Amino acid sequence: MHALHMTASSGEVLLESGIFRDVGTILARHFPRSRAAVITDDHVAPLYLSPLLETLSLAGIPASAHVFPAGESAKSLACLTELYGFLQENRMTRTDPVIALGGGVIGDLTGLAAATWLRGVPLVQVPTTLLAQVDASLGGKTAVDFQGVKNLIGTFYQPSLVFCDPCMLRTLSPAQWRNGLGEVVKYACIGDPDLFTLLEEAAPRGREGLMKRIDTLLLRCIEQKIRVVEQDVRDTGIRMILNFGHTLAHALEACQNFEGLSHGEAVSIGMDRTTRLSEARGLTEKGTWARLHQLLTSLCLETELPPIPSSALLSAMQMDKKHTGRVLHLIILERIGACRILDTSPSFFFDPAD
Which of 168, 212, 213, 303 has a CB 3.0–4.6 Å from the CB of 272, allowing a cystine? Predict the structure, then answer.
């Protein structure tokens, strides 16, 4: 088992195939004489809710569960209020862990509830998707969407424990698998050229080829996320590099009311277009975009902008959290494995000369 300590917080990431079976035993050691609240969605519940409740019961931890409809719509103030009601109904105390069982949406919603209920209760992440295991469950970002803007209301709140079980990824749909691959490619681009090469080698063998290397893929992504977060817990400096591809991605998602492209697909388009334009402007080493585009294509990820008016995308980018005053803090690649923050404007993506 890989136990990665998040020294910027009190948390710990546990990465091991089959560790899902041991969640109850491990929680009993960390939170003796406690009860638990499990939050999940109606896609994950049929697969993993009963086994999780069973491992908690066997460890002597009473637990209650609340199931939300799957999808981005659960990241709302209405669902957050519903979750507060559930926690109150079950009389959750400051020593009782709240468990997020699911992907990034459930993790973000549950994290914000845990951060604010009784001014903070223990948060445990049990990510069930590739996206959540490499990114969303780590680093302490919690949020809900507001008035069509992604992650506008939130806070930083580190999980006490994160259980990453690669075996759980075998139940992912092809769409959810691709959703996570966008973030994996991001990590390779911004800081791990060896991971990029590994992806290039495994991609032609499809999902099974990648699953044969999944422990390495997860470990390298998680280690990089923790390393960056430890330097900038509150996302005011170097942590911004984790948003490579996300400026355009969040605008695409917002313009489609979070019902079109998945997050990973949007990030893939964002990375591809950002790198093509930065290379054309002489800001990125020649050949970088071609190599990135080839990898994204071989992983069956999206690279083409959907038919959305430029004016709508520009407006959405004005609400981006990385946009301060008239300056957009855009992440660009210098080359594969190295990136930097470029202060520019949203018009970077829509230069008339392009």
Answer: 303
What per-residue confidence (pLDDT) applies to 354?
45
Rounded to the nearest 10 degrees, how much is the dihedral formed by the CA atoms of 115, 118, 119, 125?
-20
101 SS3 class: strand
Domain count, the chain: 2
Q: 247 vs 26, 339, 348, CA distance in Å? A: 38, 15, 11
Burial class, 32, CB count within 10 angstroms (exposed 0-12 / middle 13-18 / buried 19+): exposed
User: Which domain-ending residue is among 117, 139, 171?
Assistant: 171
Contact 92, 36 (CB under 8 A): no
My answer on whether 19 and 40 are in the same domain is yes
End-to-end CA distance of the chain: 49
- Name the pairing type of β-strands 12-15 and 2-5: antiparallel
Global confidence as pTM? 0.92
Q: What is the H or E stretch that residue 275 is in?
A: helix 263-280
Distance, CA of 239 to CA of 132 (rounded, Å): 17
Residue position matching structure tokens 């990665």: 4
Residue 7: predicted pLDDT: 45
Kindly report the backbone phi and psi dihedral angles of residue 259, in degrees, each rounded to the nearest multiple of 5, phi listed first.
-120, 5
Helix (DSSP H) and strand (DSSP E) numbers for the chain: 13, 12
Is-contact 320 251, C-beta < 8 A? yes
Q: What is the pLDDT of residues 124-164, one digit of tens each?
A: 999 999 999 999 999 899 999 998 888 899 999 999 999 99
Kindly write down the DSSP assignment for every residue of 292-349, as one continuous string.
HHHHHHHTT---SPPS--HHHHHHHHTT-TTEETTEEEEEEEEETTEEEEEEE-GGGG
Domain termination residue (choose one: 142, 171, 200): 171
